[in-house]
Amino acid sequence: MAKIKFEDAVKGLEDIVERLEKGDLPLDETLSKYEQGIKLYKQCIALLEDAEKKIQILVKDENGVFRTRDYELEFTQGNNSK
Fold this sequence. Notes:
Blueprint: H1 6-22, H2 27-54, E1 56-60, E2 66-70
Antiparallel strand pairs: 1-2
Helix pairs in contact: 1-2
């Protein structure tokens, strides 16, 4: 799979949604756009999960010592809840 920037994937998704919402595409092209949208969606999720793994937050414990811990991204929709 080719590496794509998150912003490019989101823009691609927005373009596909806009085309699909117009409702003027033939069925085969609609299905093709839908499949492209699903691929971009999965790429966005993978990129977000990779970014999540890289993010740590600085927290102060009960003794006033700063430590880092992993940041956990919480999804609020669909089956991606953690």
